[in-house]
Design goal:
Elements: E1 4-14, E2 19-27, E3 30-35, E4 41-46, E5 51-54, E6 56-58, H1 77-86, E7 89-92, E8 95-97, H2 104-115, E9 122-123, E10 126-128, H3 134-146, E11 151-155, H4 165-178, E12 181-185, H5 189-201, H6 209-213, H7 216-233, E13 237-239, H8 245-256, E14 261-265, H9 268-271, H10 298-310, E15 315-316, H11 353-362, H12 369-383, E16 401-405, E17 410-411, E18 430-431, E19 434-440, E20 443-447, E21 450-451
Parallel strand pairs: 1-4, 1-5, 6-7, 7-9, 8-10, 10-11, 11-12, 12-13, 13-14, 14-15
Antiparallel strand pairs: 1-2, 2-3, 5-16, 16-19, 17-18, 19-20, 20-21
Bound molecules: dihydropyrimidine-2,4(1H,3H)-dione and zinc ion (2 copies).
């Protein structure tokens, strides 16, 4: 009788801390043993010295999220998690988004129904709080946190999503009291509205003006304000999709003042620039790259790389927000001549996130393998309450593992991807690494170019209170409120 269900032999493993060679023995979907010359498995895979890493955790993606402008996300839990698995991601965090006037509980129930029977890898939910009513603050949010929804996003922009400054402070106070992690979309709504109005009045409607309506100042100011509110309330926060130098300077300022401010960046800030939003006013292909904050310039790409290398960022996510380019409910839902402010924000990236960072971060020597693992898996699990079940290679952890092919000479092609979007913003970018095999709780879901998962095998994961969300210990004689 074999001792393990599966043994991966001669793996070159990396965690956020270590690199080591081991056989990995898997039983009942978890890692049962790490060692050399392990006993037999029912199945055996020879990794032959290849990198075996924790499966990626995408801490920020949007799947089948209801919208308010008539558009429809191209990926649901089926196509989205399939695409993720084929790119080496084994856990996703999409968003259960409260509509204004809706209870948070109703948003969560609706979102469970959307995921039910579809996900092929494990998933947890972030909440999006858009209506911070007394009932939400006093009862719903605390109850949902207790049930395992321990992270939530708030917006400082978008009329249908944004909170007032007072509401932000109130939500931060609830997070502090109950130990949840707040993710902040930091852009100044009034500045964007003012700039947009002026651009449109001058007939500047093409996609490329999206970047002019949301300059870095807008992100810098909101990032600073969010940090100030976190300091006031004395609670850690996580700033999502940071795009460049000015916001990073705010992060560094916060760190130099001893504040627990965490941050995420995304592939679009390393691989795209504002030029990708269009070369002239007739260029509508730029709609493919409309996302917020917008991509900046080459110099800012380097600053974001520097931030990844130096620890300004803890998390690297895709911010997959999938809208088709040509489909009826995609980027041109409001018509083929829609002005930039009526084009849905978001770009796809679930499947390409890991290969892009591995190829251009690790294989170029910018990042260590441990940093790659930390940014793409371990830190995500820690920030959002899934560690140590997810995000590492350790006895007792789920056997979510990826065996990597390296030294490749490939280019990203949308025709090779498994999402439901008719383009990738990363078309033709070179990659030297790609997952050869993805294991989700010990089951092969991607191998040698073939998707082998099945709808509904993914499990919902309630999250623990994240340790990094813990406020700093108060000195004696601290706050009196
Ligand atoms: N914010 C996101 O987090 N995703 C897509 C669009 C946006 O503005
Ligand atoms: Zn956002
Ligand atoms: Zn997003």
């Amino acid at each position: 009788m074999a001792e393990f269900d599966l043994v991966i032999r001669r793996a070159r493993c990396a965690t956020a801390a270590d690199v080591f060679d081991a056989d990995i023995g898997i039983r009942n979907g978890t890692i049962a043993s790490l060692g050399s010359n392990l006993a037999d498995g029912v199945e055996e895979i020879d990794a032959a010295g290849r990198w075996v890493l924790p499966g990626g955790i995408d801490g920020h993606c949007h799947l089948d999220q209801p919208t308010s402008d008539g558009s429809k996300m191209a990926d649901d839990f089926l196509s989205g998690t399939r695409s993720a698995a084929c790119g080496g991601t084994t856990t996703v965090f999409p968003f259960a988004c409260q509509q204004k006037g809706q209870s948070l509980r109703a948003a969560v129930d609706d979102y469970h129904q959307r995921a039910e029977g579809k996900a092929c890898i494990d998933y947890a939910f972030h909440l999006i709080v858009t209506d911070a009513t007394p009932e939400v603050l006093a009862n719903e949010l605390p109850a949902l946190i207790r049930e395992g929804y321990t992270s939530f996003k708030i917006y400082m922009t978008y009329d249908d999503l944004k909170l007032s400054d007072r509401e932000i402070i109130d939500v931060l106070a609830v997070a502090r009291e109950h130990g949840a992690m707040v993710m902040v979309h930091a852009e100044n709504a009034d500045c964007i509205a003012w700039l947009t109005e002026r651009l449109l009045a001058h007939g500047h409607t093409a996609p490329r003006y999206h970047a002019e309506a949301r300059p870095m100042l807008v992100e810098r100011e909101a990032t600073h304000r969010a940090i100030a509110y976190a300091e006031l309330v004395d609670v850690p926060i996580l700033i999502v999709h940071v795009s460049g130098r000015e916001a990073i300077e705010q992060l560094r300022w916060a760190h130099s003042h001893g504040l627990r401010i965490y941050a995420e960046t995304c592939p679009q800030y390393l691989f795209l620039t504002a030029d990708d939003l269009g070369i002239d006013d007739n260029d509508h292909r730029g709609a493919k790259c409309i996302c917020s904050p917008p991509p900046r310039d080459k110099a800012n790409q380097q600053v974001v790389w520097d931030g990844l290398e130096s620890g300004a960022f803890q998390i690297f996510s895709s911010d997959h927000a999938p809208f088709t380019f040509a489909g009826p409910q995609g980027k041109f839902t409001a018509g083929s001549e829609a002005s930039f402010d009526r084009i849905p924000n978001g770009i796809p990236g679930l499947e390409t996130r890991l290969a892009l960072l591995f190829s251009h971060g690790v294989e170029t020597g910018r990042l260590t393998m441990q940093q790659f693992v930390a940014l793409t898996a371990t830190n995500v699990a820690r920030m959002y309450g899934l560690y140590p079940r997810k995000g590492s290679i350790a006895v007792g952890a789920d056997a979510d593992l990826v065996i990597w092919d390296t030294g490749l000479d490939r280019r990203i092609r949308n025709s090779d991807l498994h999402h439901n979007v008719d383009y990738t913003p990363y078309e033709n970018i070179s990659v030297t690494a790609w997952p050869a095999l993805t294991l989700s709780r010990g089951e092969v879901v991607w191998r040698d170019g073939n998707y082998l998962g099945s709808a509904g095998r993914g499990e919902f994961l309630p999250c623990a209170l994240p340790e990094p969300a813990r406020p700093k210990p108060q000195p004696s004689g601290g706050n009196t409120w």
